[in-house]
Design a protein that fits this description.
6-stranded mixed β-sheet, globular, Rossmann fold
Amino acid sequence: MSSRSHYASVRRAYDAALFYSHGPYTNWLAAACLDSLQLLPRHRLADVGGGSGGFASTLRQAVGGKRGCGSLTVVEPSGEMLDGALETPLVDAAVCSDAVGWASGGGGGSGEGGGEGEFERVLLKEVVHHLNSDDRRRLFGLLLRRRLSEGGQLCIVTRCA
């Protein structure tokens, strides 16, 4: 099995999993994130580690976001997962990069906006546990210096076992 077909099947399983598929848990989590982010349709939102972009699209849709008003950039190290993001209508740009690389200014992107510049809102959902403590410190410093606009909001979502 090729890496591409493996991650394509991983993407299908990921999108169907309880914590990522539409349902009561996702609805509750989306409401909590919207409250934390105070997301508006005009905001530039980056979903770092956003997989196929489904969750952030749900957030954008909830506030009436659409193309031409604000933007949604999905940052994801798996190109195969990003294939799903590029198929999601409310995703404006997809960047194949890890969190630290993107925060440091790396990673171009596909689509409008390309994931460059500053963002008013940044979402790190189910990401921080993938980083060691040094990378977490580096990521947060880079976000504050390079990616999060003044007055911007950062929302970190994780689950404890």
